[in-house]
Write a structure and sequence with these properties.
The complex is a heterodimer of chains A (139) and B (735).
Chain A: H1 19-31, H2 42-63, H3 69-90, E1 93-95, E2 104-106, H4 109-134
Antiparallel strand pairs in A: 1-2
Chain B: H1 2-23, H2 38-41, H3 51-54, E1 60-61, E2 71-77, E3 80-89, H4 90-93, E4 105-111, E5 116-123, H5 127-132, H6 135-143, E6 153-156, E7 165-168, H7 175-195, H8 219-225, E8 228-233, E9 248-254, H9 258-276, E10 282-291, H10 299-302, E11 305-313, E12 316-321, E13 325-326, E14 341-347, E15 359-368, E16 375-384, H11 404-411, H12 413-431, H13 433-439, H14 446-466, H15 473-484, H16 489-493, H17 496-511, H18 515-521, H19 523-540, H20 549-555, H21 558-572, H22 574-580, H23 586-592, H24 599-612, H25 618-622, H26 625-634, H27 652-656, H28 678-684, H29 690-702
Helix pairs in contact in B: 1-24, 12-14, 12-17, 13-28, 14-19, 19-24, 21-22, 21-26
Classes of the chains: A mainly alpha (139), B alpha+beta (735).
The structure holds iron/sulfur cluster (2 copies).
One iron/sulfur cluster binds at residues 518, 522, 524-525, 617, 619-620, 624, 626-627 of chain B.
């Protein structure tokens, strides 16, 4: 989205931070889809946290060679769908323009599909390749 | 509105045609057929393979013999069996994969003179041959080998008599497949021809070794200098689960070299071994320090052949029989690891081997396919070359042949350079867009369109129809799978234009979005939009239409669904996904030819192109899975177009956007934008952009000067400098 409408701008709470603090906040933002302190959708939050733990467990099981590749890919895909829903409720914004810039905008569902899809593809591929390299996953 | 109904009517049968086409693919004969397991294991190969077809006239076939295996073909003549030639199964000899990552299982016949007599594909997994290109094309390709001598220098491309090179015509659009097939043919043919004596081994000058000087090196020193080498096969390489152990861990070295031989065997052991060797015989030792299996296998018990190890020197290969084996009683070098299996193997004389030149120890393994449980042949090797100080006069000069992909790059160097130049020019021109759009006006956009139309023509004519370098979603799926399962650089590098194109696409998508590729360079997209412009020029303007916005904004998601569906299907069956990828009319249009394919394909492609006369890029907007795959990362492109505050109220740009990428608030959806720059021309045009035109008129009336228009699209100054806090993070700021 190239913005004309300023109403679309949604800066995250950390947008004024600079340097390392900002990088840390951004990294955390990529890895933690829940908004801290949010009291909205409490039930959903608890269920999604439990499912996130399950997705992490799936990777741990895979690391011990206890999960076939299909199951890892399936569980990561499932988690990605859920992450889209969580972000839509908790952090409905994406970065606009250069990755080193500081401008964020309101995220549509499609924006989050693209964001989570792309991010989790990178994370998933990196973990999958690492497990393959270690011999825990055989394809 | 009526026209949109018309479109709906046209789209429905098209979708049906596509569905029918996808649902009932014309299956080719040997695509992914199930072959009997005995084909690769039974001694009677010809009971399971049509050997007569590749050796016409033969009436009897022997059992598999030799290493790698082959069978002898005989004909009854006057009550006597006369040897006619040899038949071999490619997968007995080599595991070279084709484009699909799987080998093309080929039965090859060769007469006693080393001329190919027949080639038959028993199984292939090449989707391009399933739908895009008739399998008959591969049969025709293979027929080019008939009568050719196995020892000739046969390559894909033009013949070069001056270099003794015989060229074969490639299959247009399946270059990677035929390059792999040529390697399979030549590797298989020459492996058997060498065994049966048709091709004589290359005679290499014998090595001469300096006598040992000083103390003998220990194990670590031997390993460090390369006199002892290490070959490791991981369980996952052969489709097994790792349990902390490698599948095979071998250490090996060349024993004729006195320093190495004495360090390993001790001076007496070395002297005793050399006493047993005839002139021009060579000994090497192998130990297995870890692993899940034996490197000796059990073949030598049954047939006297060690069928898991081989030595290769260039194109000559050496196998070992039980008589070539001597026990290795111990390793004298200090620090040698403990081992579970060992042996000394002798390469017999007159075979051309030389210790001065590099050679490889090859472990001939089997990969177990997890799905089918079937075993496929897999080679693992490690090079060995005595260090320079262990040879009198150092290492001889060795000219290594270029890998196939490099040969292709060298052969097409000019073409590649021209293509890189073309892409760089387009990127350079686009990078100057702010200047270009200011030179153009709403009425005359040639300053931009001149470049864009030239890019289209080159893309359609030279890149699409000429070089057939139309990128496709199947490449995305293949890369995705290769990334997760088995990355093969050589495979991707063997089509240089596609490789270069993808590097450019990936970079440009992150810098500017998919629009630069889709809007300026995609051969099919360019053809589609060119037809739309042509339609307008030919007087079809009154029939041309856009879908109503609500319908458009629903239908545009269809392409993402198609992409997601293809990706999901590809995890279960890459072959099926590639068949479904026929939703792209690219193969029909550029690779095979619009009228060279069966009705449904032609109907689908021509239907889409015909529809393009009436509405802009219908395929790109609603169906293209490649466009969708590129649109998704476009969400994060670095540099977008410009917008000003007034765009939220003004609809002028949105009305002119053929891609329907501008929303009612004036925001541009980068995923849908083709970067045609029409809106950017308008943005700076003080006769077309309503707020600018208004200001121009006001100033003219008031007799004020018409100052230049700044980067943000305003006359300088349009109003006292607005308190803009941080220009780099606000809309309308230069990007
Ligand atoms: S949407 Fe597809 S066909 Fe259209 S330009 Fe992009 S890649 Fe080419
Ligand atoms: S008019 Fe503007 S928004 Fe529409 S496709 Fe062209 S460049 Fe993109």
């Amino acid at each position: 989205m190239t913005l004309a409408d300023r109403q679309e701008i949604r800066q995250p709470p950390y947008h004024r931070r600079q340097g390392l603090a900002r990088l840390q906040a951004e990294a955390l933002d990529h890895l933690w889809p829940w908004r801290s302190g949010s009291t909205q959708h409490r039930g959903f939050q608890r269920i999604s946290l439990a499912l996130a733990a399950l997705a992490s467990l799936a990777w741990a099981l895979a690391a011990f060679g206890l999960l076939p590749p299909g199951a890892i890919i399936g569980s990561w895909f499932g988690w990605s769908l859920l992450e889209i829903a969580i972000r839509y409720a908790h952090k409905p914004y994406v970065k606009e323009g250069p990755w080193w810039g500081h401008l964020y905008r309101r995220a549509s569902l499609m924006d989050l599909v693209c964001y989570v899809g792309f991010k989790n593809l990178l994370i998933g591929a990196a973990l999958f390749l690492a497990l393959r390299g270690l011999g825990a996953v055989v394809v | 509105m009526q026209l949109s109904r018309l479109l709906a009517r046209v789209l429905a049968p098209l979708a049906l045609a596509a569905g029918a086409l996808l649902g009932s693919p014309a299956r080719a004969d040997t695509y992914e057929v199930k072959l009997p397991p005995e084909l690769s294991s039974s001694p009677r190969l010809c009971s399971y393979a049509p050997c007569q077809e590749v050796m016409p006239g033969a009436t009897q076939f022997s059992e598999r013999k030799g290493q790698p295996p082959y069978v002898e073909a005989y004909r009854e003549e006057n009550g006597q069996a006369r040897l006619m030639g040899y038949v071999m199964l490619s997968t007995d000899i080599t595991d070279i994969p084709a484009y699909s990552g799987k080998p093309v299982v080929t039965l090859i016949g060769m007469d006693t003179q080393g001329r190919f007599t027949g080639v038959k594909i028993l199984k292939h997994s090449e989707p391009i041959l399933l739908l895009g290109i008739p399998e008959a094309a591969l049969v025709r390709f293979n027929d080019q080998y008939l009568g050719k001598f196995v020892g000739d220098n046969i390559e894909i491309g033009k013949s070069r008599p001056a270099e003794n090179l015989i060229g074969l015509d490639a299959i247009t659009g399946a270059t990677v497949t035929v390059i792999a097939q040529n390697q399979v043919m030549m590797t298989s043919g020459s492996a058997v021809a060498r065994q049966v004596g048709i091709l004589k081994p290359v005679v290499r000058p014998a090595a001469s070794f300096p006598p040992p000087a000083g103390p003998l090196p220990d194990w670590a020193a031997l390993v460090a200098e390369g006199s002892v080498q290490h070959l490791r096969v991981r369980p996952e390489d052969v489709g097994l689960k790792g349990e902390g152990h490698p599948y095979m861990e071998l250490w090996f070295g060349y024993l004729n070299q006195p320093t190495v031989g004495q360090a390993i065997l001790g001076p007496e052991g070395y002297a005793s071994l050399m006493g047993r060797l005839k002139e021009d015989e060579h000994a090497l030792f192998i130990i297995r320090t870890d692993g899940m299996d034996s490197f000796k296998g059990s073949g030598f018990v049954r047939g006297g052949i060690y069928d898991r190890i081989q030595v290769r020197q260039d194109k000559d290969s050496y196998t070992f029989r039980d008589l070539d084996y001597i026990n290795l009683w111990g390793i004298q070098a200090a620090g040698a690891p403990a081992y579970q299996e060992s042996g000394i193997f002798i390469i017999r004389s007159h075979k051309g081997f030389s210790g001065a030149y590099p050679w490889k120890l090859v472990f001939l393994g089997n990969r177990i396919d997890k799905e089918s449980g079937a075993k496929t042949f897999a080679n693992f090797d490690q090079e060995y070359w005595l260090p320079a100080q262990r040879l009198v006069g150092g290492r001889p000069e060795v000219i290594r042949p270029d890998p196939t992909w490099l040969k292709v790059w060298k052969e097409r160097a000019l073409e590649v350079a021209a293509f890189v130049l073309f892409l760089a020019t387009v990127a350079g021109v686009y990078a100057q867009r702010d200047r270009l759009v200011r030179r153009a006006s709403h009425r005359n956009k040639w300053a931009v369109n001149g470049f864009k139309y030239s890019a289209w023509l080159i893309s359609i004519g030279l890149v699409g129809f000429g070089a057939m370098a139309q990128p496709s979603i199947t490449q995305v799926l293949t890369w995705f799978h290769s990334l997760l399962f088995q990355w093969q650089w050589a495979l991707f590098l063997s089509d240089p234009l596609i490789f270069v194109f993808w590097i450019f696409i990936i970079l440009s998508v992150f810098i500017w979005g998919r629009g630069l590729f889709c809007g300026w360079l995609c051969p099919f997209g360019s053809l589609s939009e060119l037809l739309f412009k042509l339609g307008r020029a030919l007087g079809l303007k009154r029939f041309q239409f856009l879908l109503p916005a609500p319908l458009h904004h629903r239908l545009k998601y269809l392409k993402y669904g198609i992409f997601g569906g293809l990706l999901a299907v590809s995890f279960f069956s890459m072959g099926l996904a590639e068949q479904l990828a026929e939703v792209e009319p690219f193969k029909t249009t550029f690779l095979v030819g619009l009228f060279q394919r069966s009705g449904p394909y032609t109907l689908f492609a021509t239907g889409l192109l015909g529809l393009s006369l009436l509405t802009e890029r219908p395929f790109c907007k609603y169906l293209c899975p490649l466009g969708a795959a590129l649109a998704m990362p476009t969400t994060f492109r670095w540099f977008g177009l410009r917008r000003k505050d007034e765009c939220t109220r003004c609809k002028a740009c949105a009305k002119g956007c053929g891609s329907q990428a501008i929303d009612p608030k004036g925001n541009i959806d980068a995923r849908e934008c083709m970067l045609c720059l029409d809106c950017m021309v308008l943005y700076y045009d003080d006769h077309a952009c309503p707020p600018l035109a208004q200001e121009r008129k006001r100033r003219t009336k008031a007799g004020e000067a018409l100052t230049p228009i700044d980067a943000r699209g305003y006359f300088i100054p349009i109003h006292p400098a607005a308190p803009r806090t941080d220009t780099s993070t606000t809309p309308g700021a230069p990007r």
